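Table S5 (text form). Sequence records supplied for joint modeling of the two-component complex.
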Amino acid sequence: SQQGEEDPQALSIQEGENATMNCSYKTSINNLQWYRQNSGRGLVHLILIRSNEREKHSGRLRVTLDTSKKSSSLLITASRAADTASYFCATSSSNTGKLIFGQGTTLQVKP
Amino acid sequence: GAVVSQHPSRVICKSGTSVKIECRSLDFQATTMFWYRQFPKQSLMLMATSNEGSKATYEQGVEKDKFLINHASLTLSTLTVTSAHPEDSSFYICSARVDRQGVPQPQHFGDGTRLSIL
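The corresponding structure-token record, covering 229 residues in total, follows.
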């Protein structure tokens, strides 16, 4: 069963704007990961945040984690048309556990 | 680094055919490999987890006799869809991970295989 629920399901913005996607989960986690999937392709790993971390940055990406609310957010700043993709959060209950994926957010960035 | 190659990218075949999909980690040795299935506009559903030299662990509801997984080496896992039928048509994706003690690691994904059974 899918643990994560992502919000919004779809997001359309103009190039240069920021995009925020949220992910909620139900059970305790060891870590939470965000992935990007371009249409018809595999997934690309973006960021991994551990349960004892609250925020992580990677380039234009910022991920926050609130374990008390069982939620995470992914912020993409200064978006580009190339950021158009589906974004998935995935949780794991241990260091070597399987990933449970959320339903994903489809992001469209208009040039 | 961390490139995973999945082959073939697309298969179209007749009902009753068995189809083999390969997943290779090209520049690293994977401790664990995973097989997922994805329906259009939906999330990934984990089918099974495999470790080199041992039997795969299948998720509930996944028929192990239908979806045969072989993990012959640290760089190769195969998924064989036996006697495929139209309902097996889907997008199948593999991933590979290098496990490190005490440190969670990301999964590295192949580009998927689009399977269409006529």
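Note: Chain A touches chain B at residues 2, 30-31, 33, 35, 40-45, 48, 50, 88, 92, 94-96, 98-104 (CB under 8 Å).
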